[in-house]
């Protein structure tokens, strides 16, 4: 019988040098089959390893799934080394293709405790494979003395239950339900989201901007009454409700801004109230919105009447801020915001002298023949240069406001004082007046604030520190507005309720004086970071064509989103407000 010759099979060389088949010599029937990489040292006898994982095993009582001490976890690799190619992106990898946050639990009833030994369900931690005392972090229904991770002998045999779970939260956190806040504006399904920026990116921006150029000034401002600096908790003074008018129109409704737009003075137009909200955006918690209109080379930042920029929040940055409930109360978030806004306006009107005033270069641009007695208000229109490179020109026209001025020591007790026209606060002693309010130190949402009547005179530092923590966003906006206006001094009033159950009567307990730049430093507020945020938002808006947009802060996430909206968006709200006003007049 003739011997048969042994013939070697053809060897396919891989020119890429990698381990595995070459695509050039791959048979057609294997062409569309995905290939999973593996190491040359791996054993190919096992085609599925169900024990490879994070050390959890189903059925802790069995030998294969035991997770007790002394043995390997899950029967996987001894050294814990990951399999070759397990981190590579291939067709066998699992990806979350849908947002799990969009799912909601329909049945929120808690199930009863499980009964039985520790062999049922997942066993975690040391000693979970033995005994029945699963303890904290396990799933057994009953635990022995060792059930809290002390590794003492359990009640039902074996050594005690699992170790203390590593994800323990604060005291009684399990009682707190996740609070979902409503946005400042309802997002229509037809709106297109164009941009999204998280606060972490915004907090890292920086831009150095030179001092502004004041182009004009309008209005009449009154002298600040220094008698309010001597108020203490022992000689408190009631907060009055003066019958005076204070205007704060939006950018598009400002006749001076309309003239500046026609003269093409700048590329961007805004007010200090709107701009301070952008510059302090990383500190905000509640939702807010800003309307953006692009018309050619012009960008206009507007607000909604009665929107977030016109109201003041209370304890927004507290660990447990006030919330709105189904039954409206005087300590709900909405009621407190309205109360704080009224206090802030009335306090600024009350603390000035009516017989000592100064007229700026032009009269109040918003006054009409039907206007009643006007409150003290000075409007300075300034231009900031936000250019980064020499070959670009990005200028911002801004309307800033001041509330009063400090009269010179030799000034007359009454009459008109000449402060200059358009010097913009250089050496004039311009003043901005702000007010903090206290509602009830024992009510929910008070933010652990001390009682002002007992602590304000003796422990003012503790009161100020608590307010800086609970109202970081609001107070940072005040500091930025004062800096933008060129104010030399900021007066901060402490106003409390005459009775904690009455939100209509208030008393002034004290007034503090501070420099805006020093106050911003105490708040750790960087104006350079604020200008970086403004320039970034401007660049994002100029990327898109002419139209109307809205910048919305997510009420539940530290994110800002830019939406494209129809030209008639928010028109219904304005028409509705006008109709209500006409009905009230009738």
From TrEMBL:
Gly residues: compositionally biased ranges: 113-163
Localisation: Cytoplasm
Keywords: Cytoplasm, Initiation factor, Protein biosynthesis, RNA-binding
A GO term from the CC aspect: eukaryotic translation initiation factor 3 complex
Similarity remark: Belongs to the eIF-3 subunit D family.
Quaternary structure note: Component of the eukaryotic translation initiation factor 3 (eIF-3) complex.
Role: mRNA cap-binding component of the eukaryotic translation initiation factor 3 (eIF-3) complex, which is involved in protein synthesis of a specialized repertoire of mRNAs and, together with other initiation factors, stimulates binding of mRNA and methionyl-tRNAi to the 40S ribosome. The eIF-3 complex specifically targets and initiates translation of a subset of mRNAs involved in cell proliferation. In the eIF-3 complex, eif3d specifically recognizes and binds the 7-methylguanosine cap of a subset of mRNAs.
HAMAP family membership: eIF3d
Protein name: Eukaryotic translation initiation factor 3 subunit D
Originating species: Serendipita indica (strain DSM 11827)
Lineage, highest ranks first: Eukaryota, Fungi, Dikarya, Basidiomycota, Agaricomycotina
